[in-house]
Specification:
This protein is α+β, with helices and mostly antiparallel strands. The protein contains 5 helices and 7 strands. The chain is elongated, with a radius of gyration of 23 Å.
Amino acid sequence: MRKPRVIPVLITAAVAASLLFGGWAVYNQVAVAAPLEKVAKEAEGVASSAKPVMDDKQVTIDVVLEPDANIRDVYERIAANGKELFGGRKLNLNVKSESSKELDELWSSSLFVVAEAMETKAYSNIPAALKEAAKGYDGVTVSTEMDETNVYVTLKKADTAKYIVLPRTPAQLEVW
């Protein structure tokens, strides 16, 4: 029996591995990432979006929203139109917008109340707390919405807006 030569075996293994991983990367880019980026860019209210970053559990898309966008509508459109592309993975939007110092201060001053409401699952306290905090700022409007997965907060003043998506954790059924 002949002894196999090492160099041809290594070259064959390297070529096979590069073809397999290269093919997977091209498929991932062409069949999944590019269509998902197109879905995100076509959503109403999205000024621009970056290529999605995908792993086993989630899909993360960086989006820049227009000042008059409705964050909940954007999230739902991307989730609905891209569902077959990312399957059972969780959609995670990193929202970037033209914020202002006032909006950042308002959000910072409300953070403890919002965090407490999220922790205790008393979501109805969030709109009242944000509107109360916004009274100290002229021309700032606050909008809050909620669905089964997230709480959406929009702070607006003139041509600037700050969008916040807070993930809800479903109530766990506890054993007595």
